Amino acid sequence: MAKHKTPEINSSSTADIAFLLLCYFLMTTTMDQDNGLSRRLPPIPDANQKVQDQKVNRRNIIIVKINSADRLFAGNEILDVSQLKDKIKLFLTNPVNDPNLPEKEEKDIEGFGPCMVSKGVISLQNDRGTSYQAYIAVQNELVAAVNDLRDEFSKAHFGKVYIALDEDQQKIVREAVPQQISEAEPKDVGKK
Amino acid sequence: MPAISTSSLPDIVFMLLFFFMVTTSMRETENKVMIKLPEASQVVKLERKDLASYINIGSPIAPMQAQYGTDARIQLNDSFKTTSDIRDFIAAERDAMSEVDRQFMTTVIRCDSDVHMGIVSDVKQELRRCSALKIMYCARKPAK
User: Fold this and answer.
1) Which of A35, A105, A160, B95 is 20–30 Å from B25 (CA)?
2) Do B23 and A135 touch (CB under 8 A)?
3) Rounded to whole angstroms, how far apart are CA atoms B5 and B2?
4) Facing residues of B33 across strands?
């Protein structure tokens, strides 16, 4: 039998095909990352369950309110958004043990030891007419205050900023500086 | 002068193709509402994109304003819905996930910065009722 030499397939158009595929993927996919502020909503209280009086000491709560004109009111005074962060930091650290600011509790943190943890809770209330932009700006300041405190704590005890710590250390810092932000029930949905 | 050999061109293009296939994800829904995200400096990245379900809130895009008006609306998947449809939407999203992943389900609220909080509060209340408690307010990093 005569030996047939198989002719080579012309591959000059492979590039075109690949380009076509490439264009398809460029058009149909996205690269954008979702960024945002993570939150955990409080669960709905059970209707059958008796409403337990959650006695939180008045000094342990700071109420942050935003009205329909996007004005900010925090801890009995009118503030600008730029002042909120320092106010919250002062509230959570209570450096001079002011009896009007939150009390601290000694807590034994696993892998770290005893540590004074603030019992302060930030309660965020808004009106239905508040703009989303103002709401996020305030949320952002609250998170910024907590993150700043976490960084300070990490630098004091581990010598690094919070983000540079490993997972176990981050957990310790999270326990030492908890992020306690409660989003109140909207005003028109049932009153307790 | 000899012609430049183009025999490795397909390889180069395929490499590009693979790069894009790996780094990008499919566009799943088309936006029917205009969303200009608010700015926030403390944003964190969404950990698992596959476990996220999206709720878009904003005023309808220009071609649809004749039909739907300019009031803020909720978009789930590909159509306008009301707060009462959120329950079904969350249930469907939850069903699509595996048993282990359900507890990590995150609801991403993508909301326009000019929207009033009333509609967002309604959505939040509904999410609480469906016990989809992990949420994320979508925001973008301010340009430096």
Assistant:
1) B95
2) no
3) 9
4) B60
pLDDT by 10s per residue, chain B, length 144: 888 887 888 888 888 888 888 888 777 677 788 888 888 888 888 877 778 888 888 888 888 788 888 788 888 888 888 888 888 888 888 888 888 888 888 888 888 888 888 888 888 888 888 888 888 888 888 876
What is the distance in angstroms between the Cα of B90 and the nearest Cα belonging to chain A? 15
**Ramachandran category for residue B76: left, alpha or beta (phi over 0 → left; psi -120 to 50 → alpha):** beta
Q: Which residues of B touch A30 (CB under 8 A)?
A: 24-27
ipTM of the complex: 0.78
Residue B26 has its nearest CB partner, among A15, A29, A128, at A29
Q: Is A34 left (phi over 0), alpha (psi -120 to 50) or beta?
A: beta
